[in-house]
Amino acid sequence: MLNLTGKNALVTGIANNRSIAWGIAQQLHKAGANLGITYLPDEKGRMEKKVAELVEPLNPSLFLPCNVQDEAQIQTAFDAIRDKWGRLDILIHCLAFANKDDLSGDFSKTSRQGFSLALDVSAYSLIQLSGAAKPLMTEGGSIVTLTYLGGVRVVPNYNVMGIAKAALEMNVRYLASELGPQNIRVNGISAGPIRTLASSAVGGILDMIHHVEKVAPLRRTVTQVEVGNTAAFLCSDLASGITGQILYVDAGYEIMGM
């Protein structure tokens, strides 16, 4: 029943085969979506090569550089989408970053620059990309972002990223309200801890995963594919009545008090 054939989907945030964005891209492809992939460019082109080799089996029809701190690059990427596809149906936002120094120690010592950077890349970028996608979603659409429990509860060593995720989740609600009249839905997935390149910057990530495995009702954590399945559902007509929501895909951990 889940069919995304004929849908154009842009996936951001793939860094390697452990990325949650990679799990999402695989499931969107499996459901029949036509994929566009963005990567974070670097001077030596290493990320471009790595991501290009990884996503080759998915046969993306667009492969674009997109640094969300570069307004011109965002515009160029969405101009390419308009020229190639004419419209956009799905936007997957899997972008987050904070300085490692701001993910440990006393939260009150968070630097101004570190705070601004984390909020810019991890939260404001959803506003940027949604604004760029809006005029291309002429037949409605679905925008999905990734968040984490640390945006609503204190998690050791998450610090400024928790503030960024809280902002991100509120962005989901405001964007859902604005874009709803155009039949554009905006939702977030709060995934359980998964060992990725991004999560490796959080001190004690393996301890967090083992704790979830002991406490969560399903007695395990989740996989990239499980998050990908939820994203594919949210992007499909099966979720046509869902917007402005944060869906927990964390083996039930969020419901537990202790």
UniProtKB/TrEMBL annotation:
The residues forming a coiled coil are none
User: Does the record carry Lipid biosynthesis as a key word?
Assistant: yes
Which residues are named in the active-site annotation? 148, 158
Q: Name one GO biological process term.
A: fatty acid biosynthetic process
Q: Which residues bind NAD(+)?
A: 13, 19-20, 95, 165, 194-198
Q: Which InterPro entries match?
A: Enoyl-ACP_Rdtase_NADH, NAD(P)-bd_dom_sf, SDR_fam
User: What keywords are annotated for this sequence in UniProt?
Assistant: Fatty acid biosynthesis, Fatty acid metabolism, Lipid biosynthesis, Lipid metabolism, NAD, Oxidoreductase
User: What is catalyzed by this enzyme?
Assistant: a 2,3-saturated acyl-[ACP] + NAD(+) = a (2E)-enoyl-[ACP] + NADH + H(+)
Tell me the pathway. Answer: Lipid metabolism; fatty acid biosynthesis
| Broad EC category | oxidoreductase
Molecular function as annotated in GO: enoyl-[acyl-carrier-protein] reductase (NADH) activity
Q: Which CDD domains match?
A: ENR_SDR
Q: Which Enzyme Commission numbers does its entry carry?
A: 1.3.1.9
Residues that coordinate or bind substrate: 98
What does the sequence similarity comment in the record state about its family? Answer: Belongs to the short-chain dehydrogenases/reductases (SDR) family. FabI subfamily.
Q: What is this protein called?
A: Enoyl-[acyl-carrier-protein] reductase [NADH]
What species is this protein from?
A: Aerosakkonema funiforme FACHB-1375
